[in-house]
Amino acid sequence: MITEERKDELHKIEKKIGVTFSDISLLNTALTHSSFANESGGDETHNERMEFLGDSALSFIVASYLYEKYKKTPEGKLTAFRSGIVCSKSLASAAKDLGIGEALRFGHGEEAHGGKNKQSNLEDAFEAVLGAIYLDKGIDVARDFVLRVFKEELTEKNHLKPIEDFKSQFLEIIQREKGHEFEFILTDESGPPHDKDFFVAVELDGKIVGRGEGKSKKAAEQMAAREAIKKLKI
User: Fold this and answer.
1) Do residues 120 and 57 both lie within one domain?
2) For the domain that residue 174 is a member of, what is the CATH number?
3) I need a surface site. Which of 19, 22, 37, 122 has the fewest CB within 10 A?
């Protein structure tokens, strides 16, 4: 049951994101952190499944746009460009600009530890909101939302901007504490010699924490590092 006060809060978010939901409960779920659901005794659903859906939708939308927009740009540069747009910092910034953090519901502990301002929470919530938009309105409206939010980042003048180096970030973070062992492992290759796909896993202390795919080993390592950073919430 969504209270009238909560509905008012959700309607404000609708105005900011430019989407009016047919089922407002989808947006409510997208803006509910797992800590809130856990403290409610199972009466509330949280946004992790929508985050998963939104993450996939975001990658597809940005990739398809870049494919059509930059017809002569090679795959490696397209992958790097996409990575720069869908990076944690970029998504968290967009979420903050849209007021998503202020509308997020947290459990008392997460709230007390600044949950509304954590980059990982903001990133996850942005993806969850996108997932909710897709479920309620379909891929076309979801695509319009993404292209509107990242209009500046997707312009040609930003095409060659430095992109986020996920592998370097991952290495820098885990090396802050001594004793960790890590390895990027090529797990598979597929396709003809001129058009191969590479699959990489990154292990941390003997446990796989991220997987990635790319047209080069380096690109696959970047995607594996990105997943590891997100999975570990670091």
Assistant:
1) yes
2) 3.30.160.20
3) 22
Is residue 45 located within the same domain as residue 148? yes
Say which range, 34-48, 155-169, 216-230, has the weakest mean pLDDT: 155-169
Q: Which of 9, 51, 55, 123 is catalytic?
A: 55
pLDDT tens figures, 74-123: 887 788 788 878 888 889 889 999 999 899 999 888 877 777 888 889 99
The parent domain of residue 76 ranges over 4-158
> Among 105, 140, 158, which residue terminates a domain?
158
The question of whether 127 is a catalytic residue gets the answer: yes
Total residue count of the chain as it appears in this document: 234
Q: Is 55 designated active site?
A: yes
108 and 63 housed in the same domain: yes
